[in-house]
Amino acid sequence: MDNTEQSNWLDREIQWIREIVAVAKESVVNGLTAPPYNEDSVPAPELEKGSLYHDLVSKHEFGIAERLVIALAISPYVSPGVCDAFNSDKKLLLKSKACKSAHGIMLLPTIQTALFLLAGENVSKRLQFLHLFETSHVFYRESILDVGDMHPGEPMYNSILNLTPTYRDLVIYGEYRPPRFSTEFPAHLLTTRLEWDDLILMPTTATTLDDVKITLRHYEKLFTDWKMGNIMRPGCRVLLYGDSGQGKTLTAALLGKLLARPVYRVDIAASVSKYVGETNQRLEALFNTAENKDWILFFDEGDAMLGQRNKGGENSSSHYANQEVAFLLQRIETFNGIIIVATNLRSNIDYAFQRRFDTAAQFKALDTERQQLVWNRFWPKEYLEISSSVDLELLIKRHPLSPASIINVIRRVASHMAEKKEKTVSPEMLQRFIQDEEYKFKGTGGFA
Predict the structure, then answer these.
(1) Range 95-104 average pLDDT
(2) What confidence tens digit (pLDDT) does each residue in 225-282 have?
């Protein structure tokens, strides 16, 4: 479907919603009871075959009610003001439960608005449509709908109606787009231009990482084709642990390349909300989306978010924090895809969760020989040379660095040499930047 066809289809869908709103408005303004939606009087437009939205509707056998909810949810994006018609009458505004936007510029639809348009003021009809917003419905299971902010004590049905970013793009643009980082989707796409040959590891680390690769390649085959689901949990949980800068994040990105799956690095801090329960709700939406898209979720600094829970006297803050950690542990355990958790300190991860990893790899600090391999691998030999007065092997022995620190030294040296327009790197320059890297880790338990 080209852009013109997509915009024409959207226009018809939004016009349909406008007509439904107009019927409800006319009834209430004229002192009548708002009627339930009648498809005979306001027929839904035909869907364009071949579009992703048509495929979505067909796949899940969505009826008119689901289509109405989706069209209402996207209306603020493609035709702001659809709900502003409710603002013309106080009684109508009260019945529709449309909510003012943050700056009061327009009215936004809520779940109550959708129920009002579907069922009017018929209570029994309204009860029939509540299932659309329950956890058993595909709207929730596949995180198609996103329920917005709720103030404490507010009924869930008063929350703003929205689509999650992935499905919003599908409906509006007719295509799946990589989701943008936001509080709705607190994760960044993790990519790398490096390959496995660029990941230099100690032999024991490389061996255990080979085991990880084998596990990830075949866990679905064992679970489904070999019918081992009775002794296996869905999904696979991988722990990468060891000193900072040894290649854990690069490994996560390379595993995504190996399996041809996107890897999303989760930012837990961005998902935290001041409203009780909303943090878990955002994370649940992220997990559901990742499950349905076969994405790998990567949690860096796992000890910070999966650490020991507060066992002391609980105040309200620690109580809810413990609830969020418990939710995260439970959801990682039940995730039916691949989860990778990286940590510098394995012992800091909650013991109850440590034993639930399916496979793990320890990233050990490199010896002198392999540090030299990193220097040789990434040094821009074509453009720079090290002064003959530098004994690189001795320098490495005296100043052991992680691969990430070595690369950072090389980058800084190259930048300064490019500025000077010189080719031979002096011992003083090399020593300076190496010591800078050492200083960064003093007192942190890293490389000193």
Answers:
(1) 82
(2) 898 888 888 889 999 999 889 999 999 999 999 999 999 998 877 776 666 567 777 7
Q: Which helix (H) or strand (E) holds 163?
A: strand 161-163
- Could you tell me the two tokens for 112? 């109550």
Q: What is the pTM of this model?
A: 0.72
Q: What per-residue confidence (pLDDT) applies to 353? A: 72
And the tokens for 146? 């996103």
pLDDT tens string 369-387: 999 999 999 999 999 999 9
List the structure tokens of 410.
């090389």
Torsion of CA 420, 426, 429, 432, to 10 degrees: 180
Extract the tokens encoding 173.
Answer: 């643009």
DSSP codes, 285-301 = HHHHHHHHHTPEEEESS
Rg from Cα positions in the chain: 28
Tokens of 436: 């800078």
Q: Are residues 11 and 159 in the same domain?
A: yes
Q: Give the model confidence (pLDDT) of 389-445 as tens digits.
A: 988 888 889 999 999 999 999 999 999 999 999 999 999 999 999 999 888 766 444
Give per-residue pLDDT as tens, 198-215: 999 999 999 999 999 999
How far is 99 from 431, CA to CA, in rounded Å?
62
| Neighbouring C-alpha atoms within 13 Å toward the C-beta of 101 | 13
Is pLDDT of 346 > 80? no
Residue 119 sits in the same domain as residue 221: no
Q: Which domain holds residue 346?
A: 187-363
The domain that holds 391 is classified in CATH as 1.10.8.60
Buried b (16+ CB within 10 A) or exposed e, 343-374: bbebebbbeebeeebbbbbbbbbbeeebbbeb
Cβ neighbours for 192, distance < 8 A, ≥ 6 positions apart: 250, 253, 254, 257
3-state secondary structure 327-387: HHHHHHHHCCCEEEEEECCHHHECHHHHCCCCEEEEECCCCHHHHHHHHHHHCCCCCCEEC
Residues 277, 150: Cα–Cα separation, whole Å: 9
d(Cα 149, Cα 382) in Å, to the nearest integer?
Answer: 55
Number of structural domains in the chain: 3
∠ CA 416-421-426 to the nearest 5 degrees? 60
